[in-house]
């Protein structure tokens, strides 16, 4: 079932990975929650466990090694892009492409920066006690993500609503949660669920609803090449799930043009 | 379009220092790099890449741009796939992802094939696309094909560019099959591009194929490299245009073209 060439073969095809596999363990364990979104809550705890000792003065060394690992990774990604450019038949020495591997590597790191961020980091300060139980909606949040199957962008809008249960969250934090989860290699269904779960766990509201409508360039630029198709996914939790009237109100307020 | 206009255009190209052959994706100068290759590439081997030779080449290569040899073939694609996939696996690891998880298992291959599709313009020649569809027709009014959807890749960040192309030309006894205009757009856009160069390449290809009285090409596109990263300006659009022949000289013709593509 595994299609990729194993590491040993990679050496013989002339492509030499220069990194020891071990350097990736840290990032990989941080990554694990990503593909089992049910583990969201567990990983938030794991992360806070990891972060605590750092605050005791070991943080500088930790950060230094993290930066070193980052620039190491950047170097490998850059070399990979150089290979890609030459394999595509382009001339890597022409002026326009001279620094492209570096730019592309940095761009890719930016587009996947969500892996390094956690909901805990951004939400901790901005949850307020407020005696408000009516629907709060933040809609038309622009969203950009990368399809994990083709590494091609998909972009669209997210609409988020929640029914507070004595706790409200700073509005921009909803958009920041979208950013954290969307700046990753994603599948739209999982992205929607992760956003909903994150809000649910942080605020414990009476209900959360997330709707994402996006255009997938992997479908527009290649493959079926359907220009105007857009994909809509939604997750309804709590009262949005149980009560059709609440759901109807949400959809009426967000989906009208 | 008269020959003199073409040479004038090409001599402008020569002043384009620093770019050398890059006005034509540079591959005329640089395609020698690939180890495997047919006679086409071997023939190009003696040219050294570089600004001076590049700008020398620019003059003649502008003239012959649409007769150029392919840089890539279907067999090349198949041969490059394993190294492309290995490169993508490295990228996935470098980003901190786990290439062994279920969603990413075949991603390197899919991404490699997708990238080859996005650069399939390197495999195609204008001459293949155009040879049959040039017709003698006694028509000298403007012909416009607008709202041609265009998808390209930014050569600086390897991130998509998408938008619309509007093409107009004034035939000089010869007209072109309409879909061939869209195919010319496809050939040049499915490459690592800069929007300015793409616009010019399309205009020059039509000029060389038909020798019309004038050609106008307008592209409006959204650059994901500006929308998804960097300045992150969501609604920005970049508009570039190339006007050749009577479109450049006669403001009324140009106005007519621009009005018709706007409506």
UniProtKB/TrEMBL annotation, chain A:
<keyword id="KW-0378">Hydrolase</keyword>
<protein>
    <recommendedName>
        <fullName>GTP cyclohydrolase 1</fullName>
        <ecNumber>3.5.4.16</ecNumber>
    </recommendedName>
</protein>
<comment type="similarity">
    <text>Belongs to the GTP cyclohydrolase I family.</text>
</comment>
<keyword id="KW-0547">Nucleotide-binding</keyword>
<keyword id="KW-0342">GTP-binding</keyword>
<dbReference type="InterPro" id="IPR043134">
    <property type="entry name" value="GTP-CH-I_N"/>
</dbReference>
<dbReference type="GO" id="GO:0046654">
    <property type="term" value="P:tetrahydrofolate biosynthetic process"/>
</dbReference>
<feature type="domain" description="GTP cyclohydrolase I">
    <location>
        <begin position="77"/>
        <end position="253"/>
    </location>
</feature>
<dbReference type="GO" id="GO:0005737">
    <property type="term" value="C:cytoplasm"/>
</dbReference>
<comment type="pathway">
    <text>Cofactor biosynthesis; 7,8-dihydroneopterin triphosphate biosynthesis; 7,8-dihydroneopterin triphosphate from GTP: step 1/1.</text>
</comment>
<dbReference type="InterPro" id="IPR001474">
    <property type="entry name" value="GTP_CycHdrlase_I"/>
</dbReference>
<dbReference type="InterPro" id="IPR043133">
    <property type="entry name" value="GTP-CH-I_C/QueF"/>
</dbReference>
<dbReference type="GO" id="GO:0005525">
    <property type="term" value="F:GTP binding"/>
</dbReference>
<dbReference type="GO" id="GO:0006729">
    <property type="term" value="P:tetrahydrobiopterin biosynthetic process"/>
</dbReference>
<dbReference type="InterPro" id="IPR020602">
    <property type="entry name" value="GTP_CycHdrlase_I_dom"/>
</dbReference>
<dbReference type="Pfam" id="PF01227">
    <property type="entry name" value="GTP_cyclohydroI"/>
</dbReference>
<dbReference type="GO" id="GO:0003934">
    <property type="term" value="F:GTP cyclohydrolase I activity"/>
</dbReference>
<dbReference type="GO" id="GO:0008270">
    <property type="term" value="F:zinc ion binding"/>
</dbReference>
<dbReference type="InterPro" id="IPR018234">
    <property type="entry name" value="GTP_CycHdrlase_I_CS"/>
</dbReference>
<keyword id="KW-0783">Tetrahydrobiopterin biosynthesis</keyword>
UniProtKB/TrEMBL annotation, chain B:
<keyword id="KW-0378">Hydrolase</keyword>
<dbReference type="GO" id="GO:0003934">
    <property type="term" value="F:GTP cyclohydrolase I activity"/>
</dbReference>
<feature type="compositionally biased region" description="Polar residues">
    <location>
        <begin position="1"/>
        <end position="11"/>
    </location>
</feature>
<dbReference type="GO" id="GO:0070050">
    <property type="term" value="P:neuron cellular homeostasis"/>
</dbReference>
<dbReference type="GO" id="GO:0006729">
    <property type="term" value="P:tetrahydrobiopterin biosynthetic process"/>
</dbReference>
<dbReference type="GO" id="GO:0046654">
    <property type="term" value="P:tetrahydrofolate biosynthetic process"/>
</dbReference>
<dbReference type="InterPro" id="IPR018234">
    <property type="entry name" value="GTP_CycHdrlase_I_CS"/>
</dbReference>
<feature type="region of interest" description="Disordered">
    <location>
        <begin position="1"/>
        <end position="77"/>
    </location>
</feature>
<feature type="domain" description="GTP cyclohydrolase I">
    <location>
        <begin position="86"/>
        <end position="262"/>
    </location>
</feature>
<dbReference type="InterPro" id="IPR020602">
    <property type="entry name" value="GTP_CycHdrlase_I_dom"/>
</dbReference>
<dbReference type="InterPro" id="IPR043134">
    <property type="entry name" value="GTP-CH-I_N"/>
</dbReference>
<feature type="compositionally biased region" description="Basic and acidic residues">
    <location>
        <begin position="65"/>
        <end position="75"/>
    </location>
</feature>
<keyword id="KW-0783">Tetrahydrobiopterin biosynthesis</keyword>
<keyword id="KW-0539">Nucleus</keyword>
<comment type="pathway">
    <text>Cofactor biosynthesis; 7,8-dihydroneopterin triphosphate biosynthesis; 7,8-dihydroneopterin triphosphate from GTP: step 1/1.</text>
</comment>
<dbReference type="GO" id="GO:0005737">
    <property type="term" value="C:cytoplasm"/>
</dbReference>
<dbReference type="GO" id="GO:0005634">
    <property type="term" value="C:nucleus"/>
</dbReference>
<dbReference type="GO" id="GO:0036269">
    <property type="term" value="P:swimming behavior"/>
</dbReference>
<comment type="similarity">
    <text>Belongs to the GTP cyclohydrolase I family.</text>
</comment>
<keyword id="KW-0963">Cytoplasm</keyword>
<keyword id="KW-0342">GTP-binding</keyword>
<feature type="compositionally biased region" description="Low complexity">
    <location>
        <begin position="35"/>
        <end position="51"/>
    </location>
</feature>
């Amino acid at each position: 079932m595994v299609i990729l060439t194993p590491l040993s073969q990679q050496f013989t095809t002339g492509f030499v990975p220069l990194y020891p596999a071990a350097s990736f363990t840290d990032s990989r364990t941080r990554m694990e929650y990503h593909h089992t979104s049910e583990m969201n809550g567990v990983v938030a705890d794991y992360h806070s466990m990891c972060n605590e000792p750092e605050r005791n003065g070991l943080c500088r060394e930790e950060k230094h090694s993290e930066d070193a690992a980052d620039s190491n990774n950047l170097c490998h990604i850059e070399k990979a892009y150089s290979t890609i450019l030459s394999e595509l038949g382009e001339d890597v020495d022409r002026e326009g492409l001279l620094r492209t591997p570096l730019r592309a590597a940095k761009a890719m790191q930016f587009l996947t920066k969500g892996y390094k961020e956690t909901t805990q980091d951004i939400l901790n300060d901005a949850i307020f006690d407020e005696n408000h139980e009516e629907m709060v909606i933040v809609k038309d949040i622009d969203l950009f993500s990368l399809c994990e199957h083709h590494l091609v962008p998909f972009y669209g809008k997210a609409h988020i609503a929640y029914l507070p249960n004595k706790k409200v969250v700073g509005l921009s934090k909803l958009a920041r949660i979208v950013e954290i989860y969307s700046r990753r290699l994603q599948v739209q269904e999982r992205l929607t669920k992760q956003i909903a779960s994150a809000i649910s766990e942080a605020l414990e509201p009476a209900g959360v609803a997330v709707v994402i409508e996006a255009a997938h360039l992997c479908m527009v630029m290649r493959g079926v090449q359907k220009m105007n198709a857009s994909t809509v996914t939604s997750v309804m939790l709590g009262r949005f799930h149980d009560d059709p009237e609440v759901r109807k109100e949400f959809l009426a307020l967000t989906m009208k043009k | 379009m008269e020959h003199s206009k073409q040479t004038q255009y090409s001599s402008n190209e020569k002043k384009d220092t620093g770019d050398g052959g890059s006005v034509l994706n540079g591959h005329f100068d640089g395609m020698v790099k690939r180890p495997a290759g047919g006679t086409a590439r071997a023939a190009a081997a003696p040219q050294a890449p570089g600004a001076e030779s590049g700008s020398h080449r620019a003059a003649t290569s502008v003239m012959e741009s649409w007769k150029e040899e392919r840089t890539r073939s279907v067999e090349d694609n198949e041969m490059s796939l394993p190294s492309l996939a290995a490169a993508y696996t490295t990228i996935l690891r470098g980003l901190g992802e786990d290439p062994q998880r279920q969603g990413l298992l075949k991603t390197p291959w899919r991404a490699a094939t997708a990238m080859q599709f996005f650069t399939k313009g390197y495999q195609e020649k204008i001459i293949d696309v155009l040879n049959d569809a040039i017709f003698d027709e006694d028509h000298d009014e403007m012909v416009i094909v607008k709202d041609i959807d265009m998808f390209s890749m930014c050569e600086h960040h390897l991130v998509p560019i998408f938008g619309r192309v509007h093409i107009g030309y004034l035939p000089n006894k010869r007209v072109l099959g309409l879909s061939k205009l869209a195919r010319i757009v496809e050939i040049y856009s499915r490459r690592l591009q800069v929007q300015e160069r793409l616009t010019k390449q399309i205009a020059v290809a039509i000029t060389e194929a038909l020798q019309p009285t004038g050609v106008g090409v307008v592209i409006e596109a959204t650059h994901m490299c500006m929308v998804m990263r960097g300045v992150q300006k969501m609604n920005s659009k970049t508009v570039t245009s190339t006007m050749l022949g009577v479109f450049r000289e006669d403001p009324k013709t140009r106005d007519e073209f621009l009005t018709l593509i706007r409506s």
